[in-house]
């Protein structure tokens, strides 16, 4: 039975018994039957005046209960005619559906007319688009059918209140909506309420129209954007600016997104973007004083410490009174490196942190993230996907991110045909059901209207939304480039193409919205302002780093000094016992796994002996900070349990789904929020998110843990370009902690090394003088003061602690320090349950602090021939080996717990106890890896000895971080121990 026969069968059955078909078919047959049998088309039935209700009910298979009409019996010929009419009507509605689903494929969104050149011919006509859109649905229709009225199914509201239209009008409206200057993607969205909502915003006639005053405001934004670029070209023609020319309507889009969002309750907007259009955005969206920006073009000094950065990477933070809504909004653009999309997760994390602090984390009504992308980067860089997949995760969501693509139709010099496999650059957004609006950049009215809808959509449905503004790039990749080398045909069209300001001005003049006098007055006023700011910039003799900060510069940051001492980090005995009791007592209302019960019993035994292991030391740090009012957030893969089942902060009920308890909650009255959350299987995105989270509030301890330390390899851009150099480039202080499990334990090359050497190589400490002995240094500082100064001046801290007590102190020091630095922690695997890796309560009691260098507690003084210097877990291997060989009187083993900044004075004091002894640095990593080449120079400087007198002990150089063979691992280990224990 073919479709026609099946339809005939259903229709005949319905004529006999209307209840024999589904409610939706019943409604449809009643509509068709009535319309086709009435002699006068002026008496068409109006089924349900609410198109939204009709859409919702039909798509859910429910009836809208139209008024009952008596059914007249018909002859076979009449029935055959009805049947054909139903088939035609179904084909028409299938065509409507086809436009909705595939119209974007041929939409006229390219101002240059390169893409879909035939699509412009569809505007204002009833021409059918190519088969790729409509398939064969209207193949049998003739010119005579164009004036026939057909019912509109519930999947469309193009008729407004009308439920039927002539076929000609149907096609004209569809061509305008779906094949015009807007390419609309939304039919893949699962939520029917969203589909209804979007159809009403775009399909109802007249929906796109904006009032005259709104369009004047749009013109003002376009005028400023275009004239700002022109002004920069005039004043700084030989400078790279990465201008916005060709996509200036982006400024109107940004302004509208912010205005609409503010109207819906948003108080803070944080923007992440690459270099394209950043200068224009800083000035014309965020109201950064032009004079501050212009100083970046002048050869003047930079105040304070740091390297600074190029002008198109820098950010800002300001409070702005919006022009249309008169709402006050805090606007921030976060500084970003040339790694384009790397800033995406950072911005989202920054916004999430603010929402959590303000109690707005469920819906995210008050803080908004706007991410601005390039078309090639949006499609090409995986961190976009990683960031998008955070959008609906409970502890990462921000209630929807607004994405805006500055689509130049080119990536540097690469044509889109060779830079992506997808139809659109934005196809990745389908994974989170984000609606996507592809918009002709030379249609500012439509760009602004879509931006308004995007703001309303995000406020209504709390999900991501994408604006793809399709324009072009008038200059090359930068203003010094010659684009004709690689895109000659495109740039011939660009040279002949008028600016969006010219196009829009002519349109508004023709429609009587503005006058020539208005254009002249407002343009002259803006250019005059630019000139005044330019003159002001010439009087500024130095740049201030805080002009470019992307967070409020609080009193905490303003009053920092290297003379401020790091206070003791220990806590009182009562607090220690309370914490240990809380984390070792199984909850009564949870059926815990037997392994969890064993772990808690182990903790209880430690507590009874006034001791604690690694996981307990971490809990002591966290809960003591929570007690003092500091929010703690721990994020990463499997962090709730811990990769090695050591942490167990979340206890899951073994019989009830989604029933669990966080044992660090409610330990102290009114304690701060503790968040521990397993992340998506992402390093780059999640590490960036936590960096952003740590950037918002300096009183929050934010931690990202890698499942294994070498997993940090995939977030190297975050580490290199944003974390280690963020303060030097942008003045951004963060206290983010990275926990990186590290150690050679026969687990193969990819689960061994956290690449300690990379982090040390990125440290910016000099190795020319022992601190405070350099020429001109002030005398009289204590060792504690010197160590504080080192911390103040370093870019980040790198430690490889070997005791739970030192872990405790390091985590607390992050918050108690009077400044903020990132902390890189090499954390153990086997030491988590090692019987010797235990600390006692006295080591974390009142007045105690982190110990940078740990002496040998087992050495016998008097005849020591050799001092082994080491860091981390290898210490325990060494003391066991030494004990077996009974060399406690010949070999001393000293641990360096903080590698950077290097503890020169403390190490010198410790080694002085062993005069005449040989010095060897012993590490378990290969010689070309680990800490050797970093510490060798510093040990020699500390002791005043030649480099060759600092002997190396450990594995030979290797391309791989570890072997995958247990036999080779054992051989390497034995060789390393032999080197360590040799007295030759």
UniProtKB/TrEMBL annotation:
One of its GO terms (cellular component) is mitochondrion. Its EC number is 1.2.4.2. GO terms for molecular function: oxoglutarate dehydrogenase (succinyl-transferring) activity; thiamine pyrophosphate binding. Residues 66-76 have a biased composition (Basic and acidic residues). The keyword Oxidoreductase applies. Its cofactor is thiamine diphosphate. SUPFAM superfamilies: Thiamin diphosphate-binding fold (THDP-binding). Belongs to the alpha-ketoglutarate dehydrogenase family. PANTHER family: 2-OXOADIPATE DEHYDROGENASE COMPLEX COMPONENT E1, 2-OXOGLUTARATE DEHYDROGENASE. This is 2-oxoglutarate dehydrogenase, mitochondrial. It comes from Camponotus floridanus.
């Amino acid at each position: 039975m073919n479709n026609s026969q099946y339809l005939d069968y259903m229709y005949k059955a319905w004529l006999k018994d209307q209840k024999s078909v589904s409610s939706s078919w019943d409604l449809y047959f009643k509509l068709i039957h009535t319309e086709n049998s009435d002699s006068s088309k002026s008496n068409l039935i109006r089924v349900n005046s609410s198109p939204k209700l009709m859409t919702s009910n039909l798509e859910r298979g429910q009836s809208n209960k139209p008024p009952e009409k008596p059914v007249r019996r018909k002859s076979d010929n009449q029935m055959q005619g009805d049947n054909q009419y139903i088939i035609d009507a179904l084909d028409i509605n299938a065509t409507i559906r086809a436009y909705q689903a595939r119209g974007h494929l041929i939409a006229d969104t390219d101002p240059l007319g390169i893409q879909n050149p035939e699509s412009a011919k569809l505007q204002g006509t009833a021409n059918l688009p190519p088969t790729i859109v409509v398939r064969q649905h209207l193949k049998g229709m003739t010119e005579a059918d164009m004036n026939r009225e057909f019912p509109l199914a519930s999947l469309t509201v193009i008729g407004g209140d009308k439920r039927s239209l002539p076929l000609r009008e149907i096609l004209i409206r569809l061509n305008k909506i779906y094949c015009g200057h807007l390419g609309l993607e939304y039919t893949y969205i699962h939520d029917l309420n969203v589909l209804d909502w979007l159809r009403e915003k775009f399909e109802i006639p007249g929906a796109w129209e904006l009032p005259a005053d709104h369009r004047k405001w749009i013109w003002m934004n376009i005028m400023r954007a275009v004239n700002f670029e022109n002004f920069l070209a005039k004043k700084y023609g030989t400078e790279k600016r990465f201008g916005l020319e060709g996509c200036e309507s982006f400024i109107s889009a940004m302004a509208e997104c912010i205005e609409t969002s503010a109207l819906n309750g948003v108080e803070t907007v944080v923007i992440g973007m690459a270099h394209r259009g950043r200068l224009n955005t800083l000035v014309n969206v965020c109201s950064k004083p032009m004079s501050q920006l212009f100083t970046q073009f002048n050869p003047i000094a930079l105040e304070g410490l740091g390297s600074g950065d190029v002008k198109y990477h820098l950010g800002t933070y300001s409070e702005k009174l919006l022009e249309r809504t008169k709402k006050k909004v805090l606007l921030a653009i976060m500084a970003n490196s040339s790694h384009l999309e790397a800033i995406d997760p950072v911005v989202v994390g920054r916004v999430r942190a603010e929402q959590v602090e303000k109690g707005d984390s469920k819906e995210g009504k008050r803080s908004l993230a706007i991410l601005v992308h390039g078309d090639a980067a949006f499609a090409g860089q995986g961190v976009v996907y990683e960031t998008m997949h955070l959008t609906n995760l409970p502890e990462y969501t921000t209630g929807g991110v607004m994405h805006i693509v500055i689509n130049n139709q080119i990536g540097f010099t690469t044509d889109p045909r060779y830079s992506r496999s997808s139809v659109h650059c934005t196809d990745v957004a389908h994974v989170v059901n984000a609606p996507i609006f592809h918009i002709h950049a030379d249609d500012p009215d439509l760009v602004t209207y879509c931006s308004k809808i995007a703001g309303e959509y995000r406020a209504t449905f709390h999900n991501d939304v994408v604006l793809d503004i399709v324009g072009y790039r008038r200059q090359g990749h930068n203003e010094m480039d010659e684009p004709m080398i690689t895109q000659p045909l495109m740039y011939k069209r660009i040279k002949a193409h008028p600016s969006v300001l010219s196009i829009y001005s002519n349109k508004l003049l023709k429609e009587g919205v503005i006058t020539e006098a208005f254009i002249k007055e407002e343009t002259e006023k803006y250019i005059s302002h630019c000139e005044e700011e330019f003159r002001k910039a010439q009087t500024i003799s130095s740049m201030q780093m805080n002009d470019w900060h992307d967070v409020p510069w609080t009193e905490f940051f303003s009053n920092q000094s290297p003379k401020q001492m790091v206070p003791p980090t220990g806590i009182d005995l009562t607090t220690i016992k309370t914490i240990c009791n809380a984390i070792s007592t199984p909850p009564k209302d949870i059926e815990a796994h037997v392994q969890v019960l064993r772990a808690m019993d182990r903790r209880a035994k430690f507590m009874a002996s006034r001791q604690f292991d690694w996981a307990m030391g971490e809990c002591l740090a966290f809960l003591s900070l929570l007690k003092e009012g500091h929010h703690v957030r721990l994020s990463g893969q499997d962090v709730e349990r811990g990769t090695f089942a050591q942490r167990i902060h979340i206890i899951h009920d073994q019989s009830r789904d989604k029933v669990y308890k966080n044992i660090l909650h409610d330990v102290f009255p009114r304690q701060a929020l503790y968040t521990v959350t397993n992340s998506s299987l992402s390093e780059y995105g999640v590490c960036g998110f936590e960096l952003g989270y740590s950037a918002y509030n300096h009183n929050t301890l934010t931690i990202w843990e890698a499942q294994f330390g070498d997993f940090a390899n995939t977030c190297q851009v975050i580490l290199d370009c944003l974390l280690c150099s963020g303060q030097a480039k942008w003045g951004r202080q963060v206290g983010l902690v990275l926990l990186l499990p590290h150690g050679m334990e026969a687990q193969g090359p990819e689960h061994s090394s956290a690449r300690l050497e990379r982090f040390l190589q990125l440290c910016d400490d000099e190795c020319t003088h022992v601190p405070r002995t350099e020429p001109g240094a002030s005398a009289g500082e204590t060792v504690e003061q010197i160590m504080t100064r080192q911390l103040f001046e370093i870019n980040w801290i790198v430690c490889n602690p070997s005791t739970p007590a030192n872990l405790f102190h390091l985590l607390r020091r992050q918050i108690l320090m009077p400044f903020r630095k990132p902390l890189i922690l090499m954390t153990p695997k086997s030491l988590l349950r090692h019987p010797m890796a235990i600390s006692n309560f006295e080591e974390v009691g009142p007045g105690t602090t982190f110990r940078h260098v740990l002496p040998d507690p087992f050495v016998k003084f008097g005849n020591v021939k050799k001092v082994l210097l080491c860091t981390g877990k290898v210490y325990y291997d060494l003391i066991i080996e030494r004990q077996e060989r009974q060399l406690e009187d010949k070999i001393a083993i000293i641990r360096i717990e903080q590698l950077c900044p290097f503890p020169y004075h403390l190490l010198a004091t410790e080694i002085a106890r062993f005069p005449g002894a040989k010095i060897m640095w012993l590490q378990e990593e290969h010689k070309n890896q680990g800490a050797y080449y970093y510490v060798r120079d510093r040990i020699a400087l500390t002791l005043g000895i030649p480099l060759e007198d600092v002997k190396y002990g450990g594995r030979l150089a290797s391309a791989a971080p570890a072997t995958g063979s247990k036999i080779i691992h054992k051989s390497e280990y034995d060789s390393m121990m032999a080197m360590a224990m040799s007295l030759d």
